[in-house]
Amino acid sequence: MTKNIEPTRNPAPLPTREGGGRLRSFFFTFKRNLFSRFDRYIITKFLGTYFFSIILIISIAVVFDFSEHSDKFTMNHAPLDGLFYYYLNFIPFYSNLFSALFVFISVIFFTSKLAENSEIIAMMSTGVSFGRLLRPYLLSSAILAAISFYLGSEVIPAGSVKRLEFEMLYKSRRKPQMAEHVQLQVDTGVIAYIDHFDGQVKSGYRFSLDKFQNKSLVSHLTAQRIQYDTLADERYHWKLYDVKIRTLQGLREEITRKNFVDSVIFMEPKDFLATKNQQETLTNSELLDYIERQKLRGSGNVKVFEVEYHKRFAAPFAAFILSTIGLCLSFRKRKGGMGTALGLGIALSATYIMFQTVSSTFAINSSWPPILAAWFPNIIFTFIAIYLYRRSLR
């Protein structure tokens, strides 16, 4: 007897939202195409070599710096905890400062090794084009550029305050504590002058404040002593002693004398005591605020801060340019081996750093725009990268 067996039916698919399925499928395909095994292999090699070179070179730099200045640290009685925090801030500052150099050397080092082991030839024999080979290098550069920008903009400035203070106290012993004959514009049409300022007690002597309207003097305030109030909620709070105020209204003059006046004046003690490399201690928002205030006051040292601000955007971008140049120089197997490519890479890195220094000096001491000074090395090396890239495609 034959028994009729009904064919098994597949269970009905669970209802899914078509839009959500397509979105998940898109992101899965995007992730698979963006980070393939090939990409992960190159990115791991790139980042591994980069961080290894930083640890190696900065460790040597710390040892050399300590051995060179150990006698000063001992002579000036540098505390152990201060020394620890100094090198704790020393490491990220110089790692980020020479980040472009580390990127260049890392790319040349591990790519030359891949070329020597014929791995680049094997990759291209499977149909990988040079443009496809460049993609994981640019992805790695994007990761390093983002880290470098965040460190340089927000993290390192806070650490630089302690680092520079330690250097001034226990290395150079040249921390500025006094200022003489300082004049600055604290607001529109408001000029402040101080004969002597003591940074240790944040107190000044023989202070005057002039207010102008339509280029005419309308008020002249003098105080024998002025004290910055560190306990007040106001950022610009000052206490004035032995105050004399002359108010001018046409030909009439009114004189008022007071023993004590609480006042808000848009200036701070650091405006009188300009310290070396002060721009390194300010975050991006603080840099912009400082530049605007100094321009309002007609200060002449604004370009140093403007160059620093634009360099914080230009320096991370250099990772893309230098990684492209490094790949173009080292992806072929050469007779001289790794040494030729590495020597050429170090020479180009030194040239890049030289361009940075020279362009910054031109901006500070001449009429160069600060934004051009910050981006000038990137512009020059972008043309070099384009030339080498087109040459490598052929």
Provide the low-confidence segments as ranges.
1-10
Distance between the termini: 76 Å
Give the biggest sheet.
6 strands, antiparallel
Secondary-structure content class: alpha+beta
* Strand count: 6
Gyration radius over CA: 31 Å
Give the % helix.
55-70%
In the sheet with the most strands, the strands line up as 1-2-3-4-5-6
Order of helices and strands: HHHHHHEEEEEEHHHHH
Strand content: 15-25%
Apparent shape: elongated
Give the domain tally: 2
Mean pLDDT: 81
Number of helices: 11
Describe the structure in your own words.
There is one protein chain. The chain has helices spanning 18-34, 37-75, 80-97, 99-116, 119-125, 130-172, 269-272, 284-297, 302-330, 338-365, 370-393; strands spanning 178-187, 190-198, 203-213, 216-228, 237-249, 252-264. It is of the alpha+beta class and 394 residues long. The protein has two domains: 33-175 and 275-394, no CATH class; 178-273, no CATH class. Strands 1-2-3-4-5-6 form a six-stranded antiparallel sheet. Helix 10 (338-365) packs antiparallel against helix 11 (370-393). It is elongated. The model is unreliable at 1-10 (pLDDT under 50).
Features:
alpha+beta, 2 domains, six-stranded antiparallel sheet, 6 strands, elongated, disordered N terminus
Can you describe this structure in just a few lines?
61% of the residues lie in helices and 18% in strands. The chain has 394 residues and is an alpha+beta fold.
Can you lay out the helices and strands and say which pair or pack?
Layout: H1 18-34, H2 37-75, H3 80-97, H4 99-116, H5 119-125, H6 130-172, E1 178-187, E2 190-198, E3 203-213, E4 216-228, E5 237-249, E6 252-264, H7 269-272, H8 284-297, H9 302-330, H10 338-365, H11 370-393
Antiparallel strand pairs: 1-2, 2-3, 3-4, 4-5, 5-6
Helix pairs in contact: 2-3, 2-4, 2-6, 3-6, 4-9, 4-10, 6-9, 8-9, 9-10, 9-11, 10-11
